Amino acid sequence: MKKKQEKCDVAVLGSGIGGLCSAALLANKGYETIVVEKLPIVGGRCATLKYKGYKIPTGVLGVPMVGSFKSIFDEVGAEFDVTPMTTPPKYLVGNEIIDTPESDQPDAILSRLCSDEKEIAILKRGINKARTWSPPSNEMSLQDFIYQYTRNENLAEYYNNMSDRILSTRAHEVSAKEYFQSFSGSLKDFQRVGFAPEGSIALMKALKKAIEAKGGKVITQCRAKKILVKNEIAEGVVVEGKKGETTILANNIVSNAGPKKTVALAGKEYFERGYLRELRNMVPSLQIWVTSISDRPLFDVPILYTYKTRRLVSFVCVSHVCPELAPKGKYIHYSISSPVSQIAPWNLKNEVNMHIQDLKDHLPGYNKYGEVLHVGCYWGEWPTLANAPIVGYNDIPQKTPIENLYNVGDGVAKKGGWAGGSPGCALTAKIVVDDIENRFKPGQSL
Amino acid sequence: MGQKQEKYDAVVLGSGIGGLCSAALLANKGYKTLVVEKLPIIGGRCSTLKYKGFKIPTGVVAVPMSGVLRSIFDDVGANFDVSPITVPPKYLIDKRIIDEPSDGQPLSILSRFCSDEKEVSMLKRGIEKAGTWNAPSNETTLLDFLHQYTGNKNIISYFNNKCDIFFTVGAHEVSAREYFLSHTGSLKDFQPIGFANQGSISLMKALKKAIEAKQGRVLTQCRAKKILVRNGIAEGVVVEGKNGETTILATAVISNTGPKKTVALAGKEHFDRGYLKQVRNMMPSLQMWVTTISDRPLFDVPFLFTLKTRRLLTFLSASLISTGLAPEGKYVHYSISGPATQTGPWNLKNEVNLHIQDLKDNLPDFNKYGEILHVGCYWGELPTYSNTPIAGFNNIPQKTPVENLYNVGDGVAKEGGFSCGSPGCALTARIVVEDIENRFKPGQLF
Predict the structure, then answer these.
(1) Which residues of A touch B231 (CB under 8 A)?
(2) B280: which chain A residues are within 8 Å (Cβ-Cβ)?
């Protein structure tokens, strides 16, 4: 009955973007690294399911072509097989399509949404001030901010859609400060977006390959059972894999399981109440994505932003960019929605129905040719964004109260200079790896 | 009846530390700068009153010998006439005097308060972790944090005292995170401290001299009546001096009058409600200082911390360091207290009585030879610290919602790497001057 024991520099729990990025960076710097993943596939919410030859995302749809995420691939020598999207988006306002040349977005779209040039000029002046002088107060919502300058519903809806797409929170709930700070954060990485032709999982597999090339291990179907803590210091993790239980002793533990799960794994008696309260107060946000298929393209450009809908915020005809995501002659589309309020209660079934009703009502041809293949969402303990950027909610730092135990992933992505989605998760990995480097050398035991 | 008009690059309202530091830095960089001060003397809460040959501080009792305040004096070539306290502080606890151990270890004093070495070493380890691993949650108070490791009343009183002196908030009210972050902030400037040989006003006069040497002006008895705002941009200020009203046009307006007064001067219609709410929610804290005189020294070391008292926190025998603060053969002493709680209501008269009673009970020579010369305090609109570092209170940024209108001083001193007292105010000046430098050149009008 003697338990197996292994030693490494860093044990990583979970193989999402945060976990694999951390492990790849660490392995590349010479740290002996083990990643354990409970599922049979890697990637977490950046993976791909296959069904009838279609590739269905488990979360991440498009990925930024530049910034923190991409730079990790470059650093560790992992292949970044992503096809950039080169066609500008179109805008659907009600049932009217507005199409603008790329050169003068978003000014052109504003003029299309409102004919009063003076009102637009006032709004633009206000927005410019928020960006170049000082962001508005944290006590003010984005909607309040916009209403200072305009009550034009189309203009307000433009920002509502933008806020929902990037922060999965509508303008009346998002703090105006967060919104504007997000433009100096990882949001700018999204200015060039692309799609992985083999699905997002291909990117995660490339990271796995980079980890293994440096002697690191990525073990699937291996579940973390307990984080070992002695004298407030993390010293390892008990995992259960195909061959039974193993104790992995490690100088550092990096958890990509989400802050709440991390506490459960270590035992909440090791965490101060203030920290536990912060976790309890996390406000995860719901986002829903629907995968639709058809025999013909349902729309002529890859990205369509939809305004004045019930729920729908964008529709991606991804086959225009990556025909590889569907069988030959078939087309695949992703659409995104969030509930109108992330604070108020919502009914998941309603939210899905309204999303699909929006597709039917607003996309010509959807009724005739479109077919829903898959509906996905994360909520509760596995949110889209850990903390909706709402006034009064704290950020959870990457470091936990237990020494040498870190969290990565969007549960601990920084607000204020917002970091969300894949670049946000990648950024947490960078921050944690920097800290580990400053604290330990590879092979250095405590 | 044509009003007089003048033009400047920057106009500074108020001649406290924040105002004069900003003006000195700006004048030194070639900006045409004007300071207006409503009182006949400059310095605000860093000034000195004279009475019967004794020098009574208007707020700042002692100043840090190094760090941001000092560096401004060096930058602008102002004379920093301060004598440092070179003798280590002593502690008065239960009528016993405790010396600071001379081993140079920052926390070795703790062993003098508590004979249980194991308890002390656990606490030291916890504090070390808070400093080197991760600061505790913002939702944990310093007292909660200490209680994790110790219940020793002497030790708790030690931290309560330190906390109250620097933050004007007791350990039960201050966020543990703020407390520990402060040690990387301007708090470290306070080692060592010193006394301005001719009173703190001499430092402010030195800054004034530096401003005037660079063609800047400092006008006393000149009151700001209105900050002029057009299209959301500050463009000047109307002042009323000895020769009547003048309109000062300026590219930047820097207010050292406190955020509330700044809003009143500009008109609250120019500020968003969220900002106004933040300003309304500011929680100023009370601190009290008593000036005592005598014919002989009341205590043999300049710096005495008083623990486990009702209110008294520290007793500074300033004449032991700077003889210029009292007439020949006389001694002046400054003592400081704060109310036991800043969140609950307090009665000012009670607070003063408790302070004086503490002096009588704890310093045997006070009863015999001491005489109270002056009791000072700030509260309400002119706080000791604008925002007590309690979780849930927002910081007011230096930039206001009105473009080119800044606040400086402790009303806008940063939390998180806590900035307090004179170095905190000096830091706000540095931040604002850097921003102005990035935005426009001397003589460049928008």
Answers:
(1) 125
(2) none
Q: Which residues pair with residue A84 across a beta bridge? A: A194
Q: A321, A318, A316, A319: which is closest to A336 by C-alpha?
A: A316
Domain A84-106+287-337+345-378: assigned CATH number: 3.90.660.50
Locate the domains of chain B by residue range.
4-84+198-282+387-439, 103-190, 286-378
Tell me the pairing of strands B82-84 and B33-36: unpaired
Query: Cβ contacts of residue B288 below 8 Å, gap of 6+?
Result: B336, B337, B338, B351, B352, B355, B375, B376, B377
Cβ contact B272–A140 (<8 Å): yes
- Put simply, the answer to whether A144 touches B136 (Cβ < 8 Å) is no
d(CA B56, CA B377): 12
Contact yes or no for B144 and A400 at CB 8 A: no
The reply to whether residue B133 touches residue A399, judged by beta carbons under 8 angstroms, is yes
Residues of A with Cβ-Cβ distance to B401 under 8 angstroms: 134, 136-137
Side chain identity at B104, as an amino acid letter? G
Q: Do B144 and A272 touch (CB under 8 A)?
A: yes
| Per-residue pLDDT tens over the stretch B21-76 | 999 999 999 999 999 999 999 999 999 999 999 999 999 999 999 999 999 999 99
Cis omega (within 30 of 0) for bond into A106: yes
Determine the CATH number of domain A4-82+198-282+390-439. Answer: 3.50.50.60
pLDDT tens digits along A233-278: 999 999 999 989 999 999 999 999 999 999 999 999 999 888 888 8
Please determine, looking at this structure, whether the domain spanning B286-378 carries the CATH number 3.10.350.10: no
- Mean pLDDT taken over chain A: 89
C-alpha B245/C-alpha B239 separation (Å) is 6
Per-domain residue ranges of chain A: 4-82+198-282+390-439, 84-106+287-337+345-378, 107-179
- Helix (H) or strand (E) segment spanning residue B130: helix B117-132
Nearest residue on chain A to B130, alpha-carbon basis: A401
Contact check, Cβ <8 Å, A136/B137: no
Q: Which chain B residue lies closest to A135 (C-alpha atoms)?
A: B401
Contacts of B230 (CB under 8 A, 6+ apart): none
Reported ipTM: the value is 0.72
Are the Cβ atoms of B401 and A134 closer than 8 angstroms?
Answer: yes
Q: Give CATH for domain B4-84+198-282+387-439.
A: 3.50.50.60
Q: How far is B431 from chain A (nearest CA, A)?
A: 14
Closest-CA residue of chain B to A126: B232
pLDDT, one tens digit per residue, over B290-317 is 999 999 999 999 999 999 999 999 999 9
Q: To probe the interface with A, which of B139, B400, B431 has the most A CB atoms within 10 Å? A: B139
Which residues are CB-neighbours of B121 under 8 A, at least 6 positions away? none
Q: Name the strand (E) or helix (H) holding A430.
A: helix A421-439
What whole-number distance in Å separates Cα of residue A338 and Cα of residue A336?
7
Q: From first to last of its 446 residues, what are the pLDDT tens digits of chain A?
A: 457 899 999 999 999 999 999 999 999 999 999 999 999 999 999 999 999 999 999 999 999 999 999 999 999 999 999 999 988 888 888 788 887 766 556 777 888 888 899 999 999 999 999 988 988 887 788 998 999 899 898 899 999 998 888 788 888 888 888 888 877 766 778 778 999 999 999 999 999 999 999 999 999 999 999 999 998 899 999 999 998 999 999 999 999 999 999 999 999 999 988 888 888 877 777 889 999 999 999 998 899 999 889 999 999 999 999 999 999 999 999 999 988 887 777 888 999 999 999 999 999 899 999 999 999 988 766 655 555 555 455 678 899 999 999 999 988 876 555 567 888 899 999 999 999 999 999 988 64
Let me know: does B286 contact B351? Beta carbons within 8 Å: yes
